[in-house]
Design a protein that fits this description.
The structure is a single chain. Helices cover 34% and strands 25% of the residues. Strands 8-10-7-11-9-12-13 form a seven-stranded mixed beta sheet, with helices on both faces. A six-stranded mixed beta sheet has the order 1-2-3-6-4-5, covered by helices on one side. It is built from eleven helices and 13 strands. The protein has two domains: 129 residues, PurM-like, N-terminal domain (60s Ribosomal Protein L30, Chain: A, 2-Layer Sandwich), CATH 3.30.1330.10; 188 residues, Phosphoribosyl-aminoimidazole Synthetase, Chain A, domain 2. β1 and β2 form a beta hairpin. The protein is α+β, with helices and mostly antiparallel strands.
Length: 336
């Protein structure tokens, strides 16, 4: 990877990213930067301070909503709820003031709905940009936390909601996609944006006291997120693809585009690792709060590998498997 001069759109490849993350000094960090871990953690006056940053680059529609939820989701996977955010909002030249006001108002409204205070940030008109880009950093503090690196051998893998939520909501709003699926699928798919938050999912799961690790489903979809969790925890896994829930709109849109919904960016779904002895308690707690929760696999010692069982066939999952379906699909739609 050292000699590669051009990289695909989306997250940097793991074998390129990992050496850079490993080179950072630990300093006073409780949790250092690493692949698959959503948050950084420091300690102050006996409490843990959790933070996470995320950009929104794959869509221009409702980027304020996307930005706040995606960053808040990362903090919430620690079990500590986000309470403050800082934002950076960059707009292309000739952006109208109404567009800027609309994005900022949406950030404020979304944050307020999650109980998050906007502490400040930066806004500008940026030469060279062709579309708005926002970056949100969320913060929270608490007495205890988990990360995606804390899964244990034998843990069950639970998932809330369905696969490909964020990707479906983005793709459903593309004219080319809307024309290729039923009107009900386009409408339902677009409305999945309302399910983008996993803050309540994480809050209620963590409240059980039985959660070992959590990770939200972002780039690379369910398969990519479980892979990152396994990588962070030094574990292998088996996923049963046939039991991973996929919304009908996601299925129809994915089939029309020839893409795999299990590899489609999926903010809105939460992965949970917990003991098989306590999985029923975690599932029951979430379901009692109106949150769908499904057992989709199990973690194992790494020597057993990382595998996906699809239609009865066992497939090996490697780093290359986490390339997200969204980016090449957006490129095709732009060039169509």
């Amino acid at each position: 990877m050292q000699n590669v001069t051009e990289l695909p759109e989306g997250k940097l490849p793991i074998d390129f990213l990992k050496p850079m993350l490993d080179s950072f000094e630990r300093g006073n960090l409780v949790v250092s930067p690493s692949v698959g871990v959503d948050v950084g953690v420091t300690r102050s006056k006996g409490r843990f301070l959790v933070s996470s940053s995320d950009p929104i680059t794959g869509t221009e529609k409702r980027i304020g909503w996307h930005g706040v939820n995606v960053s808040a989701n990362d903090v919430a996977t620690s079990g500590i709820m986000p309470d403050t955010l800082s934002m950076v909002a960059m707009f292309p030249p000739r952006t109208r003031t109404g567009v800027i006001i609309g994005v900022i108002e949406e950030i404020k409204k979304t944050a307020k709905g999650l109980g998050i205070t906007v502490a400040g940030g930066h806004t500008e008109i940026t030469p060279g940009l062709v579309k708005p880009i926002i970056v949100i950093t969320c913060f929270g503090s608490g007495d205890k936390f988990v990360t995606a690196a804390n899964a244990k051998p034998g843990d069950s893998i639970l998932m809330t909601k369905t696969a490909g939520i964020e990707g479906t909501s983005i793709l459903a709003n593309l004219p080319k996609v809307a024309r290729s699926v039923s009107s009900s699928a386009a409408t339902r798919g677009g409305n999945l944006i309302r399910s983008l938050s996993i803050v309540n999912d994480a809050k209620h799961a963590f409240s059980t006291g039985h959660v070992h690790a959590m990770h939200d489903v972002t780039e690379g979809g369910v398969i990519g997120a479980v892979f990152e969790m396994g990588l962070a925890s030094h574990l292998g896994f088996v996923l049963e693809s046939d039991i991973i829930p996929v919304d009908p709109a996601t299925r129809e849109i994915s089939d029309s585009l020839g893409i795999d919904p299990l590899r489609l960016i999926g903010s809105g779904a939460l992965l949970i690792a917990c003991s098989s002895k306590t999985e029923s308690k975690v599932i029951h707690t979430l379901v009692s709060k109106g949150i769908r929760c499904t057992k989709i696999g199990r973690f194992f010692p790494l020597r057993r590998g990382r595998t996906l069982i699809r239609a009865g066939r066992q497939l090996v999952v490697t780093e290359e498997s986490i390339q997200d379906e969204l980016w090449p699909t957006l490129r095709k739609c732009r060039n169509a």
